[in-house]
Amino acid sequence: MSTILRSTSKLLRFRKHPRNFLTTTRVLRSKKDDEEVKISAEACQNVKEAADAVKEGAKEVRKVSEFTKDTVASTAKSVTKMTNQVTDKACDAAEVLTDKTKDTIDTIKDKVMGK
After folding, report:
1. What are the angstrom distances between the C-alpha of 1 and each of 22, 49, 68, 80, 107?
2. Per-residue burial over 38-76, b = 16 or more CB atoms within 10 Å of its CB, e = otherwise
3. Strands 3-7 and 22-24
4. Is this prediction's pTM over 0.85?
5. Is 3 left (phi over 0), alpha (psi -120 to 50) or beta?
6. Longest C-alpha distance within the chain, in Å?
7. Confidence at residue 70, expressed as pLDDT on a 0 to 100 scale
């Protein structure tokens, strides 16, 4: 059975313990305790806001990282493609030069050997 008592302008609720002891269900707090609770609540809110900011920052870093990764990959593909094209053109030019050099050497041999 509950009884309500008035003590220092605050209501306390007491209940009977199974062994006939009275225990409080609400603890009296001083103003200092209330201020500490408010400060800790504010600190908790600040920590939550900071954690949310860190989370958002991490998302942005991830997006930038993925963008950079994709950009590097596409640039590497482009450079590889251009390198292959230049190599093919250089090989073709070398073949043409080799053929012309052979023709020139053959022509010189024919003139020197008197054919």
Report:
1. 11, 44, 69, 85, 125
2. eeeeeeeeeeeeeeeeeeeeeeeeeeeeeeeeeeeeeee
3. unpaired
4. no
5. beta
6. 136
7. 96
Residue type, 109: K
Cα separations in angstroms, 75 against 15, 81, 109: 75, 10, 50
Structure tokens at 21: 């002891």
Q: If you search the block for the tokens 């220092």, which residue do you land on?
A: 8
Cβ proximity of 44 and 38 under 8 Å: no
| Residue 83 one-letter amino acid | T
Per residue in 40-80, pLDDT tens?
878 888 889 999 999 999 999 999 999 999 999 999 999 99
User: In the numeric block, which tokens belong to residue 94?
Assistant: 């070398």
